[in-house]
Amino acid sequence: MIYLDYQATTPLAPEARDAMLPYLGARFGNPHSPHRMGREAKAAVEVAREQVAELLPAGGSIAFTSGATEALNWAIKGSKGPIVTLATEHAAVLDPARAAAQAGREVRILPVGADGLVDLDAARAAILPGTGLVAAMLVNNEIGVIQPVAALADIAHAAGALFLCDAVQGYGRMDIPANCDLVAVAAHKIHGPKGIGALWIRDGVDIAPLLHGGGQEALGRSGTQAPMLCAGFGAAAALMRDLRDSDAAHLDRLWRIATQRLGPEWTINGSFAHRYHGNLNLHCDGVDAARLISDSREIAFSAGSACASGSGRPSHVLKAIGLSDTEARSSIRLGFGRYTTEQDIESAATMILDAAERQLMWAV
C-alpha cells in the first residue's frame, strides 16, 4: 500500500525503533527510582530531553507528556484569563477552549481568510489588554497553511498575554519562533512512537498542573515516564535535525510531481505560497472524497483530520476558509514525507485520477 497520510501519523524511523528496544527489555527500570537501573533509565530520558530540545527555542524547559493533546490541554487549562484562538485550530485546542468557556472564561475565536491565514489587524482588535492566552497552530494539520506565528506572539505579548504554539506539524521541519511562551509537539508526527509528546515552557512562565500525583516532570507534570518512548522520541528528533535539508528538498520534488500530475481540475485548498509542501489538500468538483478513498484501496490517504474521520460532518477547517459543504466533501488530503518515493506519487496520482474519472463518468 502507498502511504500518503503523514499528517495523521508518520512511519516509525528504524533508528527510533532501535533506540527504544533496550528499554523494552533488560533496561526496564523506573526512571524515578534511585538504584542503578533507575538511574540508567533516567539517563535515557534526559538524553532524549536534550535531543528534543535542540529543535525548540532556547530559554525554556521540556515536560514530556502522553502526546500533544495533553500538552495543549495543559497549556490552556493551566493558564488564566480570556483565550483567543483561530477557527482552523485542531480539536485539541478548540475543545479545551470551549470547555474553558463553559467554566466561565471568555473565549474569542478569530476567522481566517480564503487562504487559511488569520488577518493580523483582526487579531490586534481581538487580542486586548487582559487577554490571558493566545493559541495558534504553526502548520495547519488539514491544509498545511503556515500561520504568522511570530507576529501573533508579538501581538499577544503587547496585550500582556502568553502565546501557545501548536507546533505538531511544523516541529523539526521549520524553525519555531523564539518568542513563543508555550509549544506543544508530538513524537509520532516526526517518525517517533505514538503515546509521547512534550510541552515546552519558557523560563519564567507559570501554569497550573493538569495532572496531580508526584510531580515528576517540569512544572509539576505527574506520571511515570516511559524511557522507551522518550528514547524513540529523542532519536526521531535527532534525525529530523540531521535530515532537515534533505527532507525538505525531497518534499519539494514530491510536491511538484503531485501538483503537476493531478492537474488543473484539482484546486488547492488554502494558500499556495504560505504552506508546508508535505501537505497537499485539494478538491475536485463533482468528486465524493469518501467514495474516492474507498475506491482507491491501494492508497492510504484521507479527507481531513484523522481525529474527525467518521463524523460525517464537513471539515471545520475547510468550512472556515469558505468552502461549501459540497466542496469540502470533494476534498482530499495527501500527506507525504521522508519515506515516500517519487514512484509512489506517480502511481497514487494515476489511481486517484482514474477513480475520480470513473465517478464523474457515472455522474453524467
Q: What's the structural blueprint in terms of helices and strands?
A:
Layout: E1 2-3, H1 14-20, H2 36-53, E2 60-65, H3 68-78, E3 83-86, H4 91-102, E4 107-110, H5 120-126, E5 133-137, H6 149-158, E6 162-166, E7 182-186, E8 197-202, H7 227-262, E9 267-268, E10 279-283, H8 289-295, E11 299-300, H9 316-320, H10 325-328, E12 331-335, H11 342-363
Parallel strand pairs: 1-11, 3-4, 3-5, 5-6, 6-7
Antiparallel strand pairs: 2-8, 7-8, 9-10, 10-12
Shape: globular
CA-based gyration radius? 21 Å
Give the CATH H-level superfamily of the largest domain: Type I PLP-dependent aspartate aminotransferase-like (Major domain)
By CATH, the architecture of the largest domain is named: 3-Layer(aba) Sandwich
The order of strands across the largest sheet is: 2-8-7-6-5-3-4
Would you count the extended β strands for me? 12
Stated plainly, the CATH topology of the largest domain is called Aspartate Aminotransferase, domain 2
- Average pLDDT works out at 95
- Structural class, from helix and strand content? alpha/beta
Largest sheet: 7 strands, mixed
Unreliable spans: none
Tally of individual domains: 2
How many distinct helices? 11
| Proportion of residues in β-strands | 5-15%
Ends distance: 31 Å
CATH class descriptor name of the largest domain: Alpha Beta
Helical residue percent band: 25-40%
